[in-house]
Specification:
With about 160 residues, the protein is of the alpha/beta class. It has a single domain, classed as 3-Layer(aba) Sandwich (Rossmann fold). It is about 30% helix and about 20% strand. The chain has a 6-stranded mixed β-sheet with strand order 3-2-4-1-5-6, with helices on both faces. The protein is globular and about 45 Å long. The two termini are about 25 Å apart. About 40% of the residues are buried. The model has no long low-confidence stretch (mean pLDDT about 95).
């Protein structure tokens, strides 16, 4: 069994004229990330590893969530291929994960998150909102074999 927890970064700030990759989280983004962290802690999720897009808003989201669930920093790294807005690079990255990893969490972007959800789920969503998470459960032993999944999803406004 492989489990992938995919999170879209929290709401970002447009307050400053910055390159996209350098936009920080807004206060709402910070608060929503804390909500998701509390939810994961309540569900007693223990990750094998976590990866984040190098975008500041994704890294900040990861820091809030991972600190909240006491995830060790040495089991976290930035992954450039997660700075993807369509999903192909994200999927390629996940399908090539080390199979010793059973439960992984990624922090990324839309429309990649929505496209990936709609690829693996028997449900359809128009949009994964900021700080939304999807938990994919795949009945496979190899990441390269992931296909249809049972899913759970949690959005901050509904928590």
């Amino acid at each position: 069994m492989k489990t992938w927890i995919m999170m879209r970064h929290g709401k970002s700030s447009w307050e400053y004229n910055l390159p996209d990759i350098n936009r920080p989280l807004s206060k709402r983004g910070e608060n929503d990330s804390k909500k998701i962290s509390s939810l994961l802690k309540q569900k007693q999720i223990i990750l094998d590893y976590a990866f984040s897009s190098p975008a500041l808003r994704a890294k900040d989201t990861a820091e809030i969530v991972l600190n909240g669930i006491n995830h060790p920093k040495y089991l976290y790294s930035e992954e450039p291929s997660l700075y993807d807005f369509q999903g192909d690079n994200v999927l390629n990255f996940v399908k090539n994960l080390d199979n010793k990893i059973s439960i992984v969490m990624t922090f990324g972007h839309n429309s990649a998150c929505t496209n990936i959800f709609n690829t693996f789920s028997n449900k359809y969503v128009d949009n994964i909102p900021t700080a939304g998470i999807v938990i994919f459960h795949f009945k496979v032993s190899l990441w390269s074999s992931i296909s249809d999944a049972s899913t759970e999803h949690f959005f901050p406004k509904l928590i």
